[in-house]
Input
Amino acid sequence: MKKIAICFSPYGESVIKKLNEACEGKGVGPVEAFVRRDSEDLPSGFTEVSGSLEEWTKSVFVPGNALIFVGAVGIAVRAIAGLCMDKLTDCPVIAIDDNAQFVIPILSGHAGGANKLAVTIAELLGAVPVITTSTDVNETFSVDSFAVENRLSIANREGIKRVSAKAIEDKKVTLSIKGFPPKERVDVIVADETDAEYSLLLSPKPYLVGLGMKKDKDPVEVEDFFLQELEKADINPTDVYAICTIDLKEDEPAIVRLRDKYRIPVLSFDKEILGRVKGSVSPSSFVENTVGVDNVCERAAIAGALFGEDFGEPCEERGPVLVSPKSARDGMTLAIVKR
Output
């Protein structure tokens, strides 16, 4: 997630500088700093916003970005007015006061991660996170956070409100999975599809996309390739569990763009693990001479299905299915596996 901060006074500039200094060595990427105020002196490390705040906000209110307004909450609210479309896909938006006393998530607290980001920023600044979402302040179960954390697709969004209402009222929330079908109506069920009665259906993301590419490929070109290959297979990006690649490529700008824009985690594997993947793959002597293994996209996708996040021993009985073998184009390769 790319963090973009804008301020409107020298006090705000100090807050952003303090935040970026605090990020160093903490595994938290720095924020991209912007300033909009009447002054001839542009502070070092800041980009000036000369046009309207509304137009600037519109230009950066895109998937993959988190917006941080250092100033009054009202400024942030007016700036994003008219841009908010969907609580499950809107950018996370946070406001911080000029004295860095309070960090306030104001949009996309759960699905977008604004609440968690606000807590992290508050810890870095020594500030107080002001969390206002009802499930959080009442310390109850948040089903949309549960879905995001467990990489589950929300099939019927209207069910979120019904489940959250029960949690806030301190009523028992019931959950079942397809393999253990309930005998009566449940609040939440995890399944691809089901005949059971429920309030909210959460579907596992079944696909892994293996991706390989030459160094410094154009991110837009890679994104087009990614989307076109998914469309050919009739797969929505929201159904992709992870993007899988070799560890040498996990920080490629093109992969980082896909990760942030579509909120898809990246699983990377070293050449030794990829070399242990069993099954028929399309070898390439060029790839082997370059990265040390004869195939990245197919091996990485299969490794993702077999190893997941635990990187344990392969479980052959899981039987990942190669639904789209290696497709190659202009220094890019892609394969799709179903878990």
